[in-house]
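Page 37, continued from 36.
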C-alpha cells in the first residue's frame, strides 16, 4: 500500500521565463485554463494583483499576480498551491507550486500554448524530511 505525504510535505514546482508580454486580461484568462488543465480549483479565491511602482515610487515598473488554488474535492483552501505571474518591462515569469503532483512536459507545453515560448524553465519536487520536528 502506497503512503502519501501530509499536505505541504511534498510540492511539485515549476519556474518559467517566458518570451512575450501578455496583457493582464490574457494572464487572467490563461490562469483559468492552466488551473483547469492541472485539475485544480480556485475555490472562490480571487487573485491578489499588485501594480508597481507602489505610491512612494519603489518596486520598479510591472505587475505581480498571485492565485492560490486547491484540489476540487477540498472545501477549505490549502495554501501550499499557487501560481505567481510576474510581468515586467524586460521579462515575464510564471511560478507554479502545487501540492498535487503534475508532470513537467505536458504542463510546459500548455504554458507555451497559453502564454508564449518558454525561454528557460526549472522543474523540481520539494520534499520534507521524514524525521523533522516542529
Amino acid at each position: 500500500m502506497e503512503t502519501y505525504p501530509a499536505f505541504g510535505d511534498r510540492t511539485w514546482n515549476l519556474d518559467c521565463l517566458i518570451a512575450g508580454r501578455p496583457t493582464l486580461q490574457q494572464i487572467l484568462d490563461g490562469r483559468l485554463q492552466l488551473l483547469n488543465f492541472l485539475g485544480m480549483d480556485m475555490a472562490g479565491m480571487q487573485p491578489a494583483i499588485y501594480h508597481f511602482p507602489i505610491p512612494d515610487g519603489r518596486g520598479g515598473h510591472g505587475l505581480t499576480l498571485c492565485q492560490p488554488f486547491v484540489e476540487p474535492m477540498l472545501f477549505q483552501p490549502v495554501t501550499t498551491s499557487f501560481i505567481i505571474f510576474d510581468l515586467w518591462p524586460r521579462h515575464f515569469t510564471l511560478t507554479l507550486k502545487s501540492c498535487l503532483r503534475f508532470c513537467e512536459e505536458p504542463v510546459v507545453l500548455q504554458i507555451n500554448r497559453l502564454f508564449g515560448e518558454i525561454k528557460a524553465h526549472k522543474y523540481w519536487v520539494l520534499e520534507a524530511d521524514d524525521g523533522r520536528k516542529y
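Residues 3 and 130 are 12 Å apart (CA to CA). Flag for discussion at group meeting. The two ends are 27 Å apart (CA to CA).
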